[in-house]
């Protein structure tokens, strides 16, 4: 369990998988221009290689000091603006987490591990929000 909300009707528990799903949906909006990867720029599991998003191994969600921390590694297709993509991802995740979870204290770290052209060009660009 990541986060627990107490209401007059009872307790509501938010699992890490809910936040991972939110992040995966925000990434999916880019129609393949942004790819979730591990820290080496590899897609990882068999599920991700056939096009499905395996967010369990690629999106790290923790709760520190009552703040949700999200860390993800991505590869961006050549010709796509890094700043526009990372800003949109951060804003969309924060908005969705606030709507669903009800928390505004969200710290997001996006690491651009590479740019995909004909070959993967390694990068290590960290953007926080």
Strand residue percentage: 35-45%
**DSSP summary, beta strand count:** 7
* Backbone CA Rg: 15 Å
Largest sheet: 5 strands, mixed
Q: What does this protein look like?
A:
The protein has helices at about 15-30, 45-50, 55-60, 80-100; strands at about 5, 10-15, 35, 60-65, 65-75, 105-115, 120-129. By secondary structure, it is of the alpha+beta class. Strands 3, 4, 5, 6 and 7 form a five-stranded mixed beta sheet that branches. Helix 1 (about 15-30) packs across helix 4. It starts with a strand and ends with a strand. The model is unreliable at about 45-50 (pLDDT under 50).
Write the layout of secondary structure elements.
Layout: E1 3-7, E2 10-14, H1 16-28, E3 34-37, H2 46-49, H3 55-58, E4 59-64, E5 67-77, H4 82-100, E6 106-116, E7 120-128
Helix pairs in contact: 1-4
Please give a handful of descriptors for the protein shown.
129 residues; alpha+beta; elongated; two-stranded antiparallel ribbon; five-stranded mixed beta sheet; 4 helices
Quick synopsis:
This protein is an alpha+beta fold and 129 residues long. It is built from four helices and seven strands; from the N terminus they run ββαβααββαββ.
């Amino acid at each position: 369990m990541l986060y627990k909300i107490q209401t007059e009707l009872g307790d509501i528990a938010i699992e890490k998988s809910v936040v991972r799903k939110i992040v995966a949906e925000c990434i999916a909006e880019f129609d393949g221009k942004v790819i979730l990867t591990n820290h080496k720029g590899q897609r990882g599991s068999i599920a991700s290689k056939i096009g499905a998003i395996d967010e369990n191994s690629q999106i790290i969600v923790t709760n520190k000091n009552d703040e949700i921390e999200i860390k993800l590694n991505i590869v961006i297709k050549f010709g796509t603006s890094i700043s526009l993509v990372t800003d949109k991802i951060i804003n969309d995740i924060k908005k969705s987490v606030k709507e669903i979870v009800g928390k505004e204290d969200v710290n997001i770290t996006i690491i651009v591990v590479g740019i995909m052209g004909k070959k993967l060009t390694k990068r290590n660009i960290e953007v926080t929000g």
